[in-house]
Amino acid sequence: MTHPAQPKASHFINGEYVEDTAGTPIPVIYAATGEQIATVHAATPAIVEQALSTAKAAQKAWAKMSGTERGRILRRAADIMRERNHDLSVLETYDTGKPLQETLVADATSGADALEYFGGLAASLTGEHIPLGEDWVYTKREALGLCVGIGAWNYPTQIACWKGAPALACGNAMVFKPSETTPLCALKVAEILIDAGAPAGVFNVVQGMGEVGGALVTDPRVDKVSLTGSVPTGKKVYAAAAEGMKHVTMELGGKSPLIIFDDADIDNAVGGAINGNFYSSGQVCSNGTRVFVQKGIKEKFLARLAERTGNAILGDPMDEATSFGPMVTENQMNIVLGYIEKGKEEGARLICGGRRADMDGYFIEPTVFADVTDDMTIAREEIFGPVMSVLDFDTEEEVVARANDTEFGLSAGVFTKDFTRAHRVIGNLEAGSCFINSYNDAPVEAPFGGVKASGVGRENSKEAIKHFSQVKSVYVRMGDVEAAF
Ligand code: NDP
User: Fold this and answer.
1) How confident is the model at residue 176 (pLDDT cuts 50, 70, 90)?
2) Sheet of 433-436, strands arranged across
3) Among 303, 369, 400, 468, which is most exposed with the fewest C-beta within 10 angstroms?
4) Which of 252, 275, 297 is the last residue of a domain?
5) Active site located where (predicted)?
6) What separation in Å is there between the alpha carbon of 213 and the centre of ligand 1?
7) Does one domain contain both 236 and 264?
8) Does residue 466 fall inside a structural domain?
């Protein structure tokens, strides 16, 4: 019998599901059991061509609709997404392995927030009038045209919406390629947009590995590429986009610092560290994986952290009591287990976890290392799994310098009751998305993105509009034209 997660076909182009079985089969594995639940096929060159030409053709009429009309469709899509939240959350859990306890409140819901927010902004995209005596200039905010979205595997619904919603609000069309690891959820986003009244072809989904992404990025018809992925992939995609002078948004990896001063509320700080390391089993780009704890509270912090981490419930992700799921794939699990071994070898002190859980699926116990030093591999490289490194520090000046000593700059957090210090420290940290006495909140109203190797551009908020539109300026002469001859 066909599994309920099996989509009707691999791709969604021009308002309908499309199949081409000549493409390489991509098995969809449920991470909690290792069982294959669906198969999709990578896009063939014919499918890529169909998606791009369809989107290109659909974009012009979409951009000509008023912002109010486009916004109404996006807001309707948000409503449909919320109505279908339960089924979408189950599918998200099959796609990623993340527990239903999370997916019910974090995935289709945040996708719907993006559709609603950018739907609301669509009608407000205006230019300015610049008086020049008799003459004047007016500006128009116009769509870029055909945008490509390429997603990572940790938030397949949210990533499709975080890219699709602002792109469509501005009058662009999009071809979206999900990660081959999680191909299911973006198809539902495309289906919902059609159900909400979006014209066929403005949001299309094609499956495939990096080579399909590469074909999309290098196509001369494409005006913009928005990628969520790792730094190495980001460098390749950015370079390929530069070749065609295309706009880019790069949401890449991180190794973010979370700094806890000794005056912090310990339970809140522990809560922040748990949210910033173990949500989605640590598969979150903005995670605060370098937890710097001021020496005076170190042992108290570690004791409370170990106690609360022990309360994680590993188990069937479809059981709403389960609070901690598996790694997305066997490969990712092995990468993370490799880092854990490195941590042990290089002399970090294991506080809890540290091994594969004794159960089916790709579960790793939530793991905390203490006495981590700046030069250890686990303190330098992005792990993308449930591995928290706790480092000690003495002074503010010292911790800020050490926190910034990384190629990454996605996020940063500080816990302290001293507000002057909190703002000063955040001001000195090299990071794009920061938190004070909290960690990993990502409301659609707030800009999200990194500095340094962690990325270019911002998603969400009014900032995203700037990255999916461009300004045309028009000089209007009211009198005669003077010329030299
Ligand atoms: P990857 O960089 O491996 O892949 C990202 C996407 O790019 C995938 O869809 C991938 O396809 C595609 N891709 C790979 N090579 C190319 C290429 N040459 N041209 C075009 N597309 C290509 O990242 P992961 O999927 O492994 O995701 C994990 C990474 O994503 C982590 O580093 C994490 O930090 C980052 N991330 C960043 C976020 C942010 O907002 N800053 C949020 C979430 C994750 P395929 O994998 O199918 O081959």
Assistant:
1) very high
2) 349-352, 367-370, 387-393, 290-294, 257-260, 411-415, 433-436
3) 303
4) 252
5) 251
6) 10
7) no
8) no
Q: Work out which ligand 1 atom sits closest to the CA atom of 410.
A: 41
- Is residue 307 within 8 A of residue 352, CB to CB? The reply is no
> What is the position in ligand 1's atom list of the atom closest to the CA of 285?
34
Show the tokens assigned to 291: 């937890």
Do both 232 and 107 map to the same domain? Answer: yes
Q: State the closest ligand 1 atom to the C-alpha of 254, by its place in the atom list counted from 1.
A: 34
209 and 187 belong to one structural domain = yes
Q: Look at the chain and report how many structural domains it folds into.
A: 2
Which member of 251, 365, 382, 396 is catalytic?
251
CATH number of the domain within which 245 lies: 3.40.605.10
Angstrom CA distances, 73 to 79, 87, 118, 202, stand at 10, 21, 11, 12
pLDDT of residue 405: 98
Convert the pLDDT of each residue in 398-443 to its tens digit: 999 999 999 999 999 999 999 999 999 999 999 999 999 999 999 9
Can you give the CATH number for the domain in which 423 is found? 3.40.309.10
* Tens-place pLDDT, residues 268-285: 999 999 999 999 999 999
- Confidence band for 75, pLDDT divided at 50, 70 and 90: very high
CA dist 351 and 45 (Å) reads 50
Q: Would 462 be classed as within a structural domain?
A: no
Question: What lines the ligand 1 site, CB under 6 Å?
Answer: 150-154, 177, 179-180, 209-210, 213-214, 217, 228-230, 233, 236-237, 251-254, 285, 382, 384, 410, 450, 455
| Ligand 1 centroid distance, CA of 153 (Å) | 7
